[in-house]
Amino acid sequence: MKAYLYQLEEELVHAHLLYEGIEYSNDWVTIYAGQLKVNKAYAWDGCSPKFQLLGLVTVGTPDGALRFGKPWLYYQSLLHDVLCQFRYSLPFTQQQVVQIFKDDLERCKWPLKQVYVAAVNYLGPQDFGGNNRVKD
Q: b/e string for 106-115 if b means 16 or more Cβ within 10 A?
């Protein structure tokens, strides 16, 4: 069984305009009334890719310095992970998921926003369920 870097200690609720009008629920995530709720104990690996070099040093995409007891991008990496993990059953396009990530990087004032947005846009998953929606 894989050990994850982080595990959510309490339920997280995140609001975004792109959640409006969506109703979705599974064992870990609920989207309703413009809010995404992630259940306590959800686990993820922060920003990726990263790996352990000889078990001593982490090499890869930084999650940022500690702020308020957690890495700077703790919640942003969680949101992006959730939206990517359930991307086949959620109605979002890849561009919408990148927009949600970008908006939250702006909100938390992440100084490397442009680099991280470009990375998730070009190197992250491209095959989202919403990409296959029939356009009106």
A: eeeebeebee
